Every structure is written in C-alpha cells, then in structure tokens.
Amino acid sequence: MTLNTQPNLARPDDFYEALIDMHRDLDDAQSQSANAQLILLLANHIGDHATLIEALRHAREGATDMPARNGETQPLAA
Q1: How far apart are the first and last CA of the chain?
Q2: pLDDT at 72 over 90
Q3: Cα angle, residue 19 at apex, residues 1 and 73 outer, rounded to 5°
Q4: What is the 3-state secondary structure (H, E, C) of the chain?
C-alpha cells in the first residue's frame, strides 16, 4: 500500500472541527493522550507496516521543516 499524500478527505473542514472538538476541555496531558490514541487507532486501521513507516518519515520531515518557535532550535533529523 502506498501512502496517499494528496488531499483525500471528503469533508476536511468538518474533520478539522471534530479534531478540535476532541481536544476541547482537555488539559495538555489528556490532549497528548487523545492524540496518541487516535494515531494508534488509525495506524491499526491502516495496518501496512511499510505505509506506516512512510507516514512516520513524512510527519518527521514536516515537523523538522517548520520554523523554530520562540527562538528554539529544531532538532536535526536522525
């Protein structure tokens, strides 16, 4: 299975709103836990190891390509 990086959500604005709602009234630890649980649920749904590794690589590259916040430096990619 090849990772689809093209827009593929039928209702992207509705999904984004639901994602924001999922975090509403959660503290930072609960929000991080909800994110981790969502990631693991979606990874389980995808199931294909190679696709998941490709997604991890894309996510890391996207995070390290972001400009630093508050004067922080970005870690170097491994």
Answers
A1: 25
A2: no
A3: 80
A4: CCCCCCCCCCCHHHHHHHHHHHHCCCCHHHHHHHHHHHHHHHHHHHCCHHHHHHHHHHHHHHHHCCCCCCCCCCCCCC
Contact 65, 54 (CB under 8 A): no
**Tokens 């930072």 -> residue:** 28
pTM of the model: 0.77
Query: 18 and 73 in contact (C-beta within 8 Å)?
Result: no
Residues 6+ positions from 62 with CB-CB distance below 8 Å: none
